[in-house]
Amino acid sequence: MREYNDIMIALDFPGAEEALGFLDNLDTGDDKPFVKIGMELFYSEGPDIVREVKKRGYSVFLDLKLHDIPNTVGNAMKVLAGFGVDMVNVHAAGGIKMMEAAVRGLEEGWKASGRSGKRPYIIAVTQLTSTDQETMNKEILIPGRVESAVAEYARNAKAAGLDGVVCSPLEAQMIHGVAGADFLTVTPGIRLPGDSKGDQKRVTTPEDARNYGSDYMVIGRSITKADDPSEAYRRCR
């Protein structure tokens, strides 16, 4: 099922110089990692950083978390499809109609770009791994347990035709149970033993994430901020 490496390195850098310098110094042998380009780097450098990283042979998850009315998200996805990335995402909180529009826009944009092969994966954010039970109930005003909300968002994402969700590794097994074994679970909130959790709340180690059934582990600071990022990457593997 997995077409790519199952570790994604989050390129959470302020600009192209830092991100590309990191990749230039990263020694992973023949094991070319999947990388995530998020809002900080994309808003700093725009589409050029995506094109440059793709040119270097990396698979790219463009993590922009689109969340707006269906028409706007659909049109935005047409644009993102032209970048040739391998995975994109939306917020599941936007609802089924918004997610359906995102899938249509992505497919239309992919065809219009003239690229061959399968369109990029499209996944939906369920609840951020920085969200705990109290925050969800008292600030976001979603009642019940985090796991219940995540499961319902996953069902909606599958109904809308998406390929998977972003979730905590703690919820990966549950999501496969409600949405199927082939429904992708992309899991941030991964830390090596002894690393600080930072602003994350629902976290695990890479080993535990694999045991919980995570398909793609998004790992940032445990690799990018390590004294020896190449060794940290090998340790995660």
UniProtKB/TrEMBL annotation:
One of its GO terms (cellular component) is cytosol. SMART domains: OMPdecase. One of its GO terms (biological process) is 'de novo' pyrimidine nucleobase biosynthetic process. Pathway: Pyrimidine metabolism; UMP biosynthesis via de novo pathway; UMP from orotate: step 2/2. The keyword Lyase applies. Residues 6-236 form the Orotidine 5'-phosphate decarboxylase domain. Keywords: Decarboxylase, Lyase, Pyrimidine biosynthesis. The keyword Lyase applies. It catalyses: orotidine 5'-phosphate + H(+) = UMP + CO2. Its EC number is 4.1.1.23. The active site is at D63 (for ompdecase activity), K65 (proton donor), K65 (for ompdecase activity), D68 (for ompdecase activity). CDD domains: OMP_decarboxylase_like. Substrate binds at residues 12, 36, 63-72, 129, 191, 200, 220-221. GO terms for molecular function: orotidine-5'-phosphate decarboxylase activity. InterPro entries: Aldolase_TIM (IPR013785), OMPdecase (IPR014732), OMPdecase_AS (IPR018089), OMPdecase_bac (IPR047596), OMPdeCOase_dom (IPR001754), RibuloseP-bd_barrel (IPR011060). Homodimer. PANTHER family: OROTIDINE 5'-PHOSPHATE DECARBOXYLASE. Catalyzes the decarboxylation of orotidine 5'-monophosphate (OMP) to uridine 5'-monophosphate (UMP). Belongs to the OMP decarboxylase family. Type 1 subfamily. This is Orotidine 5'-phosphate decarboxylase.
